[in-house]
Amino acid sequence: MKHFFYIAALVLMSQSVSAQLFSKERIRNLDNFDKKFLSYGYFLGFNSYDFNFDYKVDRKDILVNKTTGFNVGLVGNMRVNNYIDLRLEPGLYMTTRNLEYHPSYFQGLEYTDSDLEREIKSTYIHIPLLLKLSTKRLNNFKPFIVGGISTALNLSSNEDNPDDNSNGKFRTKSSMYFYEIGFGIDFYLYWFKFTPSIRGVFALNDEVVRDYDPNSPWTGNIETMKTRGVFINFTFQ
Q: Per the database record, which ranges form the Outer membrane protein beta-barrel domain (predicted)?
């Protein structure tokens, strides 16, 4: 008899959960939220930036030690129809990457352990224009995919610094261009809409500023150095 009550309770609980998630009779939060032509919000999140290298001559890869960075920014959303939105998401993205060189890059040259490492700090003002394609809303959640293009200004680029790697300064370009693609889910809560999302970003242009010496062990063998990364953002609207 006791087992019967356990089974009955589990069936009732499963039916309750199913009704909450999938029943058309569930109370819909913020039912008219997506009908606004313009809506606004903000986001917080994390990033993991990397570099993708192409080389002039086949050598040991330059290793990139990544760190977890921080994102914060604003969201502006323009409704096109029930399934399409245009979004502008300007934000501040901070990260640090450390490059490790193999000693073969310094063959025939005197070097120290510090010459084998370069720290690259980046502070991007990142401005993407995104197209958001959503499914039909199912009760209080709605999945979507998103893609678009973006530009970024690196405030920590050192592009105009007269010192190069011979003085310990690895320089990068200040203006960057990207394409982006990702996905997420809108959750309609009682007071606001909460959206976790993940997005990949891929640079279109070369980021390295080369040293004055064309045979520099730090930049001489780099054909292109392009940023790529992953963003995990939590949006509140």
A: 26-207
- What are the pLDDT digits (tens) for 38-66? 999 999 999 999 999 999 999 999 999 99
At 9-41, the pLDDT tens digits run 333 334 433 444 444 557 889 988 999 999 999
Instruction: Provide CATH code, domain 31-236.
Output: 2.40.160.20
Secondary structure of the chain as H, E, C letters:
CHHHHHHHHHHHHHHHHHHHHHCCCCCCCCCCHHHCCEEEEEEEEEEEEEEEEEECCCCCCCEEEECEEEEEEEEEEEECCCCEEEEECCEEEEEEEEEECCHHHHCCCCCCHHHHEEEEEEEEEEEEEEEEEECCCECCEEEEEEEEEEEEEECCCCCCCCCCHHHCCCEECCEEEEEEEEEEEEEECCCCEEEEEEEEEEECCCCEECCCCCCCCCCCCEEEEEEEEEEEEEEEC
* Annotated domain spans of the chain: 31-236
Q: How far is CA 28 from CA 120, 140, 159, in A?
A: 47, 6, 52
